[in-house]
Design a protein that fits this description.
Length: about 210
């Protein structure tokens, strides 16, 4: 463990939680309740399924924000003092890593790739350089330009920022657990390589119509 103030989470943890709450409440839960702002004037054909999916996505995003805070705040990784035997003890890494750290790693990489790749493809589409396939049969009406603008100006930047917060929170946890700086830097380079490969593949699959975009 480091000697830093255990009651003060890193900025990545706080920002991760704030970003998650913002997106879950003002985008996913809002759209699950029937809100249409952010859909670019498009209306889903199967509205109940869309609303349910938005609600579930909001819950998952909130869990991601909480994970950011937990990974960066040692005090939150301790079992409540009132629990018998384990009260006050830190949750063992053998339990926290598979249940929290691994999902955060996967989610962080996915979010960064989504943000970078989605931003590139939507920009290319708006510039008329590439055509992004859309499942038109899933919508009553569809305004691609409006959808792309919402993606480019809000959704994809959020994915990128949230992904960075998730990965930095995981780095903070690794530091707290005594992982060497060399190992963390090596893992960072591996993650950067995965992001580069994933983003390239993402853009290629979209512009060549080899991936269905919902």
């Amino acid at each position: 463990m480091t000697s830093r103030d255990e009651s003060a989470p890193s900025r990545a943890g706080v920002w991760g939680l704030l970003l998650a709450v913002f997106y879950a409440v003002f985008v996913r839960f809002y759209q699950a309740a029937g809100g249409t702002i952010g859909l670019g004037g498009s209306v889903p054909r199967d509205l109940p399924t869309f609303q349910f999916t938005s609600f579930v996505a909001g819950v998952v995003i909130l869990l991601g924000g909480v994970a950011c805070l937990v990974l960066t705040t040692p005090r939150l990784r301790r079992a409540p003092a009132w629990l018998p035997m384990s009260g006050g003890r830190e949750v063992p890494a053998a339990l926290l890593v598979p249940l929290c750290a691994v999902p955060v790693l996967v989610g962080g990489l996915y979010a960064v790739v989504h943000g970078l790749g989605g931003g590139v493809t939507k920009l290319l589409a708006l510039l008329g350089v590439a055509q992004v396939p859309l499942p038109t049969e899933a919508w009553v009406n569809l305004d691609p330009a409006a959808l792309f603008l919402w993606d480019l100006l809000l959704y994809e930047p959020w994915f990128l920022a949230m992904g960075v917060c998730l990965l930095l929170s995981l780095r903070r946890y690794a530091t707290d657990e005594g992982v060497s700086r060399t190992a963390i830097q090596r893992a960072g380079r591996v993650c950067a390589a995965l992001v580069a490969v994933g983003t390239t593949a993402f853009v290629w699959m979209i512009v060549t119509d080899n991936l269905l975009v919902l």
